[in-house]
Amino acid sequence: MAEYSVFSLIKNALNGHKSWQRAWRDPEPKPSYDVVIVGGGGHGLATAFYLAKVHGIRNVAVLEKGWLGGGNTGRNTTIVRSNYMLDDNAHFYEKSMKLWENLSHELNFNVMFSQRGVLNLAHSDGQMDRFARRGNSMRLNGIDAELLDRKEVKRMVPYLNYSDEARFPIYGGLLQPRGGTARHDAVAWGLARGADRLGVDIIQNCEVTGFKRTGNRIEAVETSRGTIGCGKIGFAVAGNTGYLASKLGMKLPIESHVLQAFVSEPLKPLIDHVVTYGAGHFYLSQSDKGGLVFGGDLDMYNSYAQRGNMETIDHVMRGGIAMVPSLSRLRLLRHWGGVMDMSMDGSPIIGKSPIDNLYLNCGWCYGGFKATPGSGWVFAHTIAEDEPHPLNAGLRLDRFERGHILDEEATGPVPGHH
Amino acid sequence: MLYIDCPYCGKRAHEEFTYIGDATKKRPDGAEKNDPAWVDYVYTRDNPRGPHLELWHHGLGCREVVKVLRNILTHEILGAGRPADDIPLPETETKP
Description:
The structure holds 2 protein chains of 2 kinds. Chain A is an alpha/beta fold. Chain A has 11 helices and 18 strands.
C-alpha cells in the first residue's frame, strides 16, 4: 500500500481523489496464527504493530467483534499526558508519551497529536502542596511539570471562574506542557494501517465466543467467524475483560463501570489547552472541529452498558459550569458511554495470566487512551519474550496478592474512588 | 434514572442512594498474613455481565443498607431487600 506524502496528496488531488487505495486489507481468518490479539481498539492494534515491527512476529491476527476503534478508542476524551507520581506508572506513561511524540512519523499517518499542555487546577493550599509533591516526583523521573500560581493560571486560561464568589476559588495549578490531545479515530486507523502493512491480519466483525483448552493452555479461540488456532493469545478488550475471563473461569481485580463523555456544538477557538477541575471531576479541551470535548465521573455503579444516566450528565455539567461559567449557554451536541475496566487500585494490569499462553492488558480505568502506544509496546514485549518489560514489571497482575498496589490517589480498593 | 424498591421506604430514585458494591463478598475470619481469602475479599470480583447482587446505602432516605439484584448489562433492577435477604432471580430472567 502506498506511502502517504505531500506528493501522493497532490497526485490524487489532480486525479479527483479517485485512485486512493483502501488503507488496510479485509482478510478472511487463517486457520491459526502465532499470536492472536483479542480486541481491535488502540491497544490491540498497537500491540500487533509493535509485535510485527519490533519483535518480527508477523503471523498475527487482531480479532475485533465490531468495527475498528468502535469501543473505548472511539469513545474517550482524547487526552494524552504522563503526569503520574508513582514510579511504576510514571516510567510507563512517559514511555508512552515519547512514543506519541513520534507516532505520526512512525505510522506515516497523521494522528494529530497536539502538545497543547494539560493543566490541573488546585483549589486549596493543601491541593497546591499535593501538586508540588506530584510535580517534584515527576521532575525527578524526568517528566516535565510546572507549578503555576493563581496569577500565572489566570494569564494562561483567562476564561475560568476567578470571582470572589466561586465556591472553590482557584489557587493555582500543575501544568504538564508536553501533554495534550490526539485524534482518537486517526490513532486506530493509523495503527491498523501500520500493522496491516507489516502483515498483520485485522479481522473485524469477529466476536470471540469461547476457548479450546488443553491443560493450562488455550489451543484455539472460537469466534463468530470460525475456530482460530493460536500459539499465544493476548486480551486487549477493556471493559469486557471480566466477561472473557469468566469464560475461562478466571476472576480478576476488576469491575466494569460506565463512563460518559460529551461534545458541545462547535465554537470558534476558546479552549487552547486541556484543563481539569480540581474540586470535582471535569476535564475539558476543544477539538479541531470546534466542539468542546469533556467528561467527568463514572456513573458509580457496575455496568456493561455503553450508555449512562441523566443524573451523571447533570453532575458533570455542574462541575463544568463551576469551572468555566460561560459554558452554561452552550448546547450539547452528542454524548455517549464507554465501559471502563476499573482495576481495584486505579492502575492498569499488563502481564502474564494464570494460563500459560494467555497475556492480559486491562484495568485501564479512566485513562487507557493516553497509554495506547506504550501499552502496545510493553504488551508486545511481554507476549514475545514471555515476561514483562521492566516498564510493566510493576503493573503485573500478581501485585495485588503481593501487596504492591499502585494506588496513585491513595483512595483504597474502590473503583468509584479512582 | 434507576428505581430501587427500598424494603423500608418503597420505590425511590437511585439518586437517593450511594453505591457500595458487590454484595457477595464475605469478610474472612482472622487476619493471617498473605491470606488468599483476604486478597479475594478485598480485590477479586466476579464482575458478571448480567445479574449482579450489590449493596446500596439509602443515605437520603432511611439510611439503611439495601441489597439489590440488578442486571448490569441492561441496568434492569430485578429485586431488592435487606442485606440478609435472599433475592432470587425472577423466573423470566435467563442467565448470561
